[in-house]
Amino acid sequence: MIVPAILLMVCGLSGAIKKGDDLVKNRSFSIDYVNNQFVKDGEPFRYVSGAMHYFRVPVHYWPDRMRKMRAAGLNVLETYVEWASHEPQPGVYAFEGNLDIEYYFELAQHFNLSVILRPGPFIDAERDMGGLPFWLLSVDPSIKLRTSDKSYVTHVEKWFSVLLSKIKPYLYNNGGPIVTVQVENEYGSYSPCDRDYTSWLRDFIRQHLGKDVVLFSTDGDGDGYLQCGKIPGVYATVDFGAGSNAVESFKPQRHFELAGPRVNSEFYPGWLDMWGEPHSTVDKEDVVKTLDDMLAINASVSMYMFHGGTSFGFTSGALPSNTYTPCITSYDYDAPLNEAGDPTEKYFSIRKVISKYLPLPDFPVPVASPKAAYGHVHLHYVANLWDLLSTPIAGRPLQSTYPMTFESLGQANGYVLYCTQLRGHFPDPALLEVKGLADRAYLYIDMEFGGVLSRSGSLFSIPVQATDNQNLCLLVENQGRIAYGTGIKDFKGLTSNVTLNGHILSSWTHHPLPFNETGSLEWLNKIEKKRGTPIKGTMSLFTGSFAIQRNESDLADTFLNLSGWHKGVAFLNGINLGRYWPVQGPQVTLYVPKNFLKAWPSKNRLILLEQDRSPCEKNELGCTVEFVANPVLNGDTPVKKRSTKLFKKHV
Ligand SMILES: *[C@@H]1O[C@H](CO)[C@@H](O)[C@H](O)[C@H]1NC(C)=O
Ligand SMILES: *[C@@H]1O[C@H](CO)[C@@H](O)[C@H](O)[C@H]1NC(C)=O
Ligand SMILES: *[C@@H]1O[C@H](CO)[C@@H](O)[C@H](O)[C@H]1NC(C)=O
Ligand SMILES: *[C@@H]1O[C@H](CO)[C@@H](O)[C@H](O)[C@H]1NC(C)=O
Ligand SMILES: *[C@@H]1O[C@H](CO)[C@@H](O)[C@H](O)[C@H]1NC(C)=O
Ligand SMILES: *[C@@H]1O[C@H](CO)[C@@H](O)[C@H](O)[C@H]1NC(C)=O
Ligand SMILES: *[C@@H]1O[C@H](CO)[C@@H](O)[C@H](O)[C@H]1NC(C)=O
């Protein structure tokens, strides 16, 4: 996504901070340990902040969302910085469009919002590999992430040198909005507990940002977390959710910071969702009460999330609960501003509480933006898995004796088709074992679908009927790398040998199917309808085009209803909207912001990559999707109880 120049002009931002004016003000931001407060320009300062990740909200909507956050009475905005997005390949940096963090800082300043910056390098945030770039595992498979391991530190050094030099001019003391900077992220929950690493990171940040910048750390509200999370010279803060006893929950912070302001750096007004587990909601009354209790004792609070947004594309991660549980595409989070940026009842209740403590700006009260139900789009079946192998969509095939991981193939996300020719005489049936599967595999023998294996379902073996010379293939899907804990070194694909009847299978051909370059998908738009019908269990591609009888200014956000489809990925006008899996739930619709759509008379192009089963196997007329005006995030799920408690994932 690219920011059109016009947007910058509309917002009246010339791209530069008014440094002259600000210097006159003699800006300063610090901690007053005598009066247990922050001090901004010599005045006591307390913040009520909200998290909005720039990488989860279309850049066109940043001004709208920030205005609404300011209108709720917030005086600070919080975001992580995601290394993986900014350095997709070693030494290749991206800071444009949706990754333009400087624009984010400038907009925040424009809306009189200060910024709490959490640059990681590890961030969790339910992102693929907790925001670390996958290629760390390609360059050094034995790398020790989040430790003082030379190999890891060398890459952090390079990245942080680039990042911190961009951040420095935006520090509060330098005329920008950034008041505090977090070191690492909930490090006290990470078992290696390498204090040399956190001290090194602290010093590296100070060396680049200057000695005056207020650094902080965040950990769970227990002495056990702070024990390792506390970094000398870095202000320790805690996190806890709605329904907690505010006075009690701040006590652990006091055990490690004898004086200074109470700070909850992640107050959870909602919670995240995983595929196959019920939608989480957090009671508005609990949020209001805990927030009020915290503000009443002068605490500074940052709400995680205030606006969650969407994990577009393949960016969402997975939780290590039940060994492996992938997160959904939506990051609505039951937050005060919902996924589409509309204020909820919770928003207004929170605004009311904040108004008791901070002045509300003289802004109009936000209302929900219009949504559109553009209706049904008919889709054509154009290709299947086997057709793709000879097109630009598939990467160059690679041979090796034993299976290679995505990381050793240099592939971040998507799928890899692993194939081998069987040699020998096997019992009927024989057991195929795929112990190192990450994360989901479709088995084919001579191109015929033979079943699904699944890491999240702990299904790692399957009986097969196979004979000499037959071709055995496994299409392996990466469902997102684990986002936190000791499992973040989450190699994808076939991570150990595959055996048939106990014998190791060798001589593999790898067909990369990364679906990361929208240019290659253009090829699908050129081809006509495919003959025959899609086959269950065989990846099938569908395309459809539609025009919207509205001009640019009349376009509205919408939701793609995938009810009736099984599991896959949707692409609109070359943008990956994210993974869908309505049969697993709870998410049934995908959010489509209006700027992803084209106005009349242009045609919009939709591509569905369906892995399992389409509604058109028997009935061509059923080959449709529908753009609807309301999201469905609370669909039915196979599991009726969540595998983790709300607000508990520190391990
Ligand atoms: C700026 O702040 C410093 C330190 O707080 C103070 O010594 C100095 O007098 C201030 N300058 C102005 C122009 O206010
Ligand atoms: C920011 O604050 C200044 C000074 O209080 C005010 O004049 C200005 O209108 C505010 N800007 C916005 C966008 O609220
Ligand atoms: C909160 O701040 C006010 C004003 O500085 C002070 O009077 C009060 O004692 C503080 N309350 C707590 C619980 O620290
Ligand atoms: C897409 O993935 C391939 C490897 O699978 C990689 O070489 C290429 O650079 C990636 N392209 C983009 C745009 O990330
Ligand atoms: C696969 O088996 C071969 C032969 O026993 C062995 O050398 C290799 O390390 C194994 N690979 C993995 C990933 O376990
Ligand atoms: C867009 O369409 C609306 C309603 O049809 C109309 O009122 C408006 O003038 C149009 N705007 C432009 C720029 O054509
Ligand atoms: C989504 O589609 C299903 C099946 O056609 C339908 O029953 C459901 O009402 C739709 N949901 C919305 C929000 O329109």
Tally of alpha and pi helices: 15
* CATH homologous superfamily grouping of the largest domain: Glycosidases
Bound small molecules, by name, code or SMILES, are: 2-acetamido-2-deoxy-beta-D-glucopyranose
Radius of gyration, in angstroms, nearest whole number:
25 Å
Which CATH architecture of the largest domain is right?
Alpha-Beta Barrel
| Unreliable residue stretches | 1-20
Can you tell me the number of structural domains? 3
Mean pLDDT: 94
Q: State the CATH topology of the largest domain.
A: TIM Barrel
Taken from the alpha-carbon principal axes, the silhouette is globular
Widest β-sheet, arrangement of strands: 4-5-6-7-8-9-10-11
Helix content: 10-25%
Q: Strand content of the residues, in percent?
A: 25-35%
| CATH class annotation of the largest domain | Alpha Beta
Alpha carbon gap, first and last residue: 35 Å
Catalytic activity: Hydrolysis of terminal non-reducing beta-D-galactose residues in beta-D-galactosides
Domain Beta-galactosidase 1-like first all-beta: 403-513
EC number: 3.2.1.23
InterPro entries: B-gal_1-like, BetaGal1-like_ABD1, BetaGal_gal-bd, Galactose-bd-like_sf, GH, Gly_Hdrlase_35_cat, Glyco_hydro_35_CS, Glycoside_Hdrlase_35
